[in-house]
Amino acid sequence: MRVTVLGAGTMGHGIAQIAAQAGNAVTIRDIDNAILEDGLDAIESNLQGGVDRGKVSQEEKATTLDRIGTTTDLEEAVDGADLVIEAVPEDLGIKHDTFEEVKAAAPEEAVLASNTSSLSVTEIASVLDRPGRAIGLHFFNPVHIMGLVEIVVAEQTDEATVAFAEGFVEEIGKEPVTVRDSAGFASSRLGVALGVEAVRMLETGVAGPRAIDRAMELGYNHPMGPIELTDVVGLDVRLDILEYLQEELGERFRPPQLLRQKVRAGKLGRKSGEGFYVWDEGEVVGVSGDLEGGR
């Protein structure tokens, strides 16, 4: 199968890696060669980590990298593709523009998928002449480790596309969970609901970030607490999702003022070096200064 991934960022290069590891020919397209190079470097690093842990052979690493090509040209990227997965920024306008470009260049029989984590796949697909071939494939970060792919069925998606998507997810070694298109789907809606309540607890002084996170890690066996996960996802990303869910589903998803203040201050989590925690080289090294009084 020929798979095209649009976007070489965190999600895009992760999707490309696991598709190539499963034996597919993969093309990654981005608008900047530097971003493509960074994406390839990240894939090689992930694979080398697998080699070091004895999970990936040197031969598998080499053949996986050989299956991945890159380009900045959209027409070249989608030429002959069986599946096109967009992993562009979580902005409806950008996704609409991407699907508009893809529909003019990709083969008519190609399945077009969005990696959106919360936006309406039905609305994203509305720009297509044949929206029945559109579907959501919501991967989770880090893609090469997380086992779930949420398949989001738009109002227009036809049964053949659903079957194709479920088969692809199983082929790449992931577990498909199929849901109907609704704001936040299942995973983001539930995950954000837990995360926003945790931030409200911080805001009202119920407990500090470490206490909240440990409560969920030890009491509910979560691999990562909701405050740390918010830092990993990105506070700006969480804010955007909450604003969208508030508009679609009501006041229970209203973003806490503390979250807005953090984003305005540029404290976006792990990627900026500080959010609710302080980060160094991808690891938590302390609690943000304005929360140090919390346990």
Automatic annotation (TrEMBL):
Residues 184-279 form the 3-hydroxyacyl-CoA dehydrogenase C-terminal domain. Its EC number is 1.1.1.35, 4.2.1.17, 5.1.2.3. Residues 3-181 form the 3-hydroxyacyl-CoA dehydrogenase NAD binding domain. It comes from the Archaea. The keyword Oxidoreductase applies. The record marks H138 as: Important for catalytic activity. GO terms for molecular function: (3S)-3-hydroxyacyl-CoA dehydrogenase (NAD+) activity; 3-hydroxybutyryl-CoA epimerase activity; enoyl-CoA hydratase activity; NAD+ binding. NAD(+) binds at G7, A8, G9, T10, M11, G12, D30, E90, K95, S117, N141, K271. The keyword NAD applies. Keywords: Isomerase, Lyase, NAD, Oxidoreductase. GO terms for biological process: fatty acid metabolic process. Pfam families: 3HCDH, 3HCDH_N. PANTHER family: 3-HYDROXYACYL-COA DEHYDROGENASE FAMILY PROTEIN (PTHR48075), 3-HYDROXYBUTYRYL-COA DEHYDROGENASE (PTHR48075:SF5). This is Fatty acid oxidation complex subunit alpha. It comes from Halalkalicoccus paucihalophilus. The gene is fadJ_2.
